[in-house]
Amino acid sequence: MGTVFTRIIEGEVPARFVWRDRSCVAFLNITPLAPGHTLVVPKEEADHWIDLGPGLAAHLMSVSQVIGKAVQKSFEPEKVGLAIGGLEIPHTHVHV
Questions:
Q1: H/E element, 78
Q2: In the predicted structure, residue 87 carries a pLDDT above the cut 90
Q3: Per-residue pLDDT, 3
Q4: What is the CATH classification number for the domain harbouring 36?
Q5: CA 52 to CA 29: how far, in whole Å?
Q6: What angle do CA 26, 65, 95 make, to 5 degrees?
């Protein structure tokens, strides 16, 4: 059985997706810290972000930047924050 994020990616658990490509997905957080709080998650399960290949890590940052710009435009916060998660769920993810 995969992580909750793998179950979301595979459609077993519902989510509101805002991005999907062959390497990663992005969906709205079910407990948002602010409007537009989005999780960018690699399809590949990786417990620790330093274990990601350099190409995938760079891709996650690139997608996070696109999502961040959309959040900035839509909600006009002072700044858009970014944090790499993975402590509470053993599947690397980026909070935007």
A1: none
A2: no
A3: 92
A4: 3.30.428.10
A5: 22
A6: 50
Distance of CA 45 to the CA centre of its chain: 12
Cβ-count burial of 48 within 10 angstroms (0-12 exposed, 13-18 middle, 19+ buried)?
Answer: exposed
Q: Average pLDDT for residues 59-86, to the nearest whole number? A: 96
Alpha-carbon distance values, 92 to 8, 77, 79 (Å): 14, 25, 23
Q: What percent of the chain has pLDDT over 90?
A: 94
Q: What is the pTM of this model?
A: 0.95
pLDDT, position 67 = 98
| Number of folded domains that form the chain | 1
Identify which of 50, 61, 68 has the alpha carbon closest to the alpha carbon of residue 23: 61
Q: Tell me the residue range of the domain where 59 lies.
A: 4-95
Closest CA to 93 of 52, 34, 36, 55: 52
